[in-house]
Amino acid sequence: MYSIGVDLGGTKILTGVLDEQGTLQHTLELPTMAADGPDAVIRRMRDTIDRMLDRVGRANVIGIGIGAPGPLNPHTGMVLGPPNLPGWDQIPLRDELHEVYGLPVYLENDANAAAVAEHRFGAGQGSLQMVYITVSTGIGGGVVIDGQVRQGAAGGFAEIGHMIVDPDGARCNCGNRGCLEAVASGTAIARMASEAFGRALTAEQVAELAMRGDNKAQQVLDTAFYYLGIGLVNIVNLYDPDLIVIGGGVARIGQPLFAALLQALGSNYFRRSYGMDVPIVPAQLGAKAGVIGAAALPWLAREQA
Amino acid sequence: MYSIGVDLGGTKILTGVLDEQGTLQHTLELPTMAADGPDAVIRRMRDTIDRMLDRVGRANVIGIGIGAPGPLNPHTGMVLGPPNLPGWDQIPLRDELHEVYGLPVYLENDANAAAVAEHRFGAGQGSLQMVYITVSTGIGGGVVIDGQVRQGAAGGFAEIGHMIVDPDGARCNCGNRGCLEAVASGTAIARMASEAFGRALTAEQVAELAMRGDNKAQQVLDTAFYYLGIGLVNIVNLYDPDLIVIGGGVARIGQPLFAALLQALGSNYFRRSYGMDVPIVPAQLGAKAGVIGAAALPWLAREQA
Questions:
Q1: How distant is the Cα of B178 from the closest Cα of chain A, in angstroms?
Q2: pLDDT tens digits for range A166-194
């Protein structure tokens, strides 16, 4: 038996078929073309799902899981109005797809889906209290406690990117100041670098410059790492995890990032008091975590039934 | 049948007997005299427990619950080294008391115990995702999800007072800067007022002065409320609660505090996006929440068994 997972992003739709052991059997990627609006995007999603159903046979599919950008409500299956999906406003995505396919459909925040994947098949296996953080153009998170990803009252559990870490910090898209996402994401690194260098640079280019010894680039990274460190201290004090998994593009900066985060955690009162050594490890599933986690949702639901 | 609860604080020990309906039948308060060290303090705790056992009859008691200051580990029953209990370092309090009395003994962080009490018998009844915050000389918290107070990997879940809300803020006892407790607790209010007025003032006196129209006092409160507001926005984005219960001495400032917190929450992206209206309500059990919650622990354990 198989499940189908869809990772719906602002720039691409990645759909795949997963078996019960967590092996991704087939994948298909289409551009989201988000500007076309929800109807066209959902049509493209359905194209990818149709192709997967043809491939493995509808009778062999137990259900469909969708990972989508927040805010969304997993309890009602509604996509509420993600900033990077223009025109989406209270779209009952889960029920629409269920009506089309007659299969169980599950909707989950994309970061939560990736957290599920890392916990079940990746870096988080065996953890009883895992925090997953993705640091990419944005910052998201998911918390898996006793094998269950926590959703909160309305699907907003662990919106880690919107934790305020500096009330005097840069303005966030959400309207608040100094959200972790506004001061430590790839976008924030690029913004700080553009200010420092007077020209447009990507986070990747900043990391490369820093690696080659450029001081200005290093300072930009240090600022972002400093805020990520504060975020991690807060995560430890608020969730008391036994493991922290870090994914997303910025995590690929690698050793210097993890060293900075471990140092920040070393300053944490509770960690010191408990003599705890909370491991911080890189995610293992890379860019596939979202689609694997989405496809894992039907399997999880089956186990919990 | 009855349970015995002990609220072990830095200044007093409050012990009581609870019936299954949550009615506190008898209480006894002794000064902690913490400076005498753990052996003397445990002796005094045992005196209060002995008196309660005599009162209701040992055969009628199902167990003993202890609420104590963190850091402690509820899984191992160890008190690790609370700043306001000098000399306590890795004390196996749960096992010591179990050995003496032969009854089941449960150890829980004092804020978690109060959270249990408010959820079961107070302002949090019926909530599926409750965050309890106590704002007093310190700031603590407890999160009750699906009826269970979350303990985390090592007993450090929801150490809300040590969430960093301003990395340039005042130094905290824990060593970090700008912890919520360092900038918004009763102690922080008193410290800011002493600086503003050039003489020692308690948080209560500051609140009284502000009520009578004193601008300087109002500014001190506004600063503390501002940081509490940031803390609340973070709590909503991290725990996505359906209810926030606020207890502790500072909560007695009442309406101006709750108005400021509701205003801060109104600025929260996810709350706005979801159209959520997270109620913020005052705790109902006052200074008895700790002892009631401690005494509730044996009942909870019995239900979950």
A1: 10
A2: 999 999 988 899 999 999 999 999 999 99
Cα dihedral: B172, B224, B68, B49 (round 10): 140
B105 beta partners: B64
Examine the domain organization and report whether B159 and B267 are in the same domain: yes
Q: Which two structure tokens, joined as six digits, stand for A52? A: 């997967």
Residues A94 and A160 both lie in one domain: no
Please tell me whether residues A162 and A295 are part of one structural domain.
Answer: no
B203 and B224: one domain?
A: yes
Question: Are A66 and A195 in a shared domain?
Answer: no
Q: For the domain that residue A11 is a member of, what is the CATH number?
A: 3.30.420.40
Contact status, residue A3 vs residue A61, Cβ threshold 8 Å: yes
DSSP-H helix ranges across B19-155: 38-56, 93-101, 110-121
Nearest CA in chain A to B169: A166
What residue of B is the nearest CA neighbor of A234?
Answer: B163
In a domain, B56, yes or no: yes
* Residue-wise pLDDT tens digits, B123-173: 999 999 999 999 999 999 999 999 999 999 999 999 999 999 999 999 998
Q: Are A251 and A283 in contact (CB under 8 A)?
A: yes
Same domain for A270 and A145, yes or no, is yes
Q: What's the rounded Cα separation, in Å, for the pair B87 and B107?
A: 19
- Residue A200: the pLDDT is 97
Q: What is the pTM of this model?
A: 0.95
Residues of B in contact with A81 (CB under 8 A): 273
Optimal mutation site among A274, A280, A304, interface B, most CBs of chain B within 10 A: A274
- Among the partner-chain residues B159, B230, B274, the one whose CB lies closest to the CB of A237 is B159
Asked if residue B66 belongs to a domain, the reply is: yes
For residues A140 and A267, membership in a common domain is answered with yes
Under an 8 A CB cutoff, do A270 and B150 touch? Answer: no
Any idea how long chain A is? Answer: 305
Using the beta-carbon criterion (under 8 Å), do A276 and B153 form an inter-chain contact? yes
The domain total for chain A is 2
**To the nearest whole angstrom, how far is the Cα of B275 from the nearest Cα of chain A?**
10
ipTM of the complex, rounded to two decimals: 0.95
Domain membership of residue A72 as a residue range:
2-110+287-304
Give per-residue pLDDT as tens, A266-281. 877 777 777 678 999 9
Residue B49 sits in the same domain as residue B194: no
